[in-house]
Amino acid sequence: AKKGKLQDVIEAGNIVLSAHGLQGIEYNCEFLQVTRATRSPSWAVTAICQEPGFVFPDVLSVTQMSPKQLDLVSVRPVDDESEQAGNSGSYFLCEGVTSP
């Protein structure tokens, strides 16, 4: 990401996490409400997600695992027919790259 542009990372099939949501090629989730937990470095997030032909809600937990890693867990089950693997997974900070 440092050598190219953030768009190159997205075009390679990666999903980018920002404070506003998740962004990928023909896929995005807009974070609507973010609530911080009081006893852990975690947040509960409601989102509206879109992919070609589908709009759907999602609820996620976001947990800071380290200063450079956030783990997301979605309540939305993964659909074997969908191109997306779901919103769950680990997201890592790419230093030196600014989000759009």
Structure notes:
The mean pLDDT is 84. The chain has one domain (6-92). It has one helix spanning 6-11; strands spanning 16-18, 21-24, 27-36, 42-51, 54-66, 69-74, 89-92. The chain is mostly beta strands and 100 residues long.
Topology record:
Elements: H1 6-11, E1 16-18, E2 21-24, E3 27-36, E4 42-51, E5 54-66, E6 69-74, E7 89-92
Strand content: over 45%
The strand count comes to 7
| Number of separate helices | 1
The share of residues in helices is: under 10%
Describe the oligomeric state of these chains in a short phrase.
single chain
| Biggest β-sheet strands, sense, barrel | 7 strands, antiparallel
Helix/strand-derived category reads mainly beta
Along the chain, the helix and strand elements come as HEEEEEEE
Shape: globular
How confident is the prediction overall: mean pLDDT?
84
Write down the Rg: 14 Å
Low-confidence stretches: none
The number of domains is: 1
Spatial gap, N to C terminus: 13 Å
Strand order of the largest sheet: 1-2-3-4-5-6-7
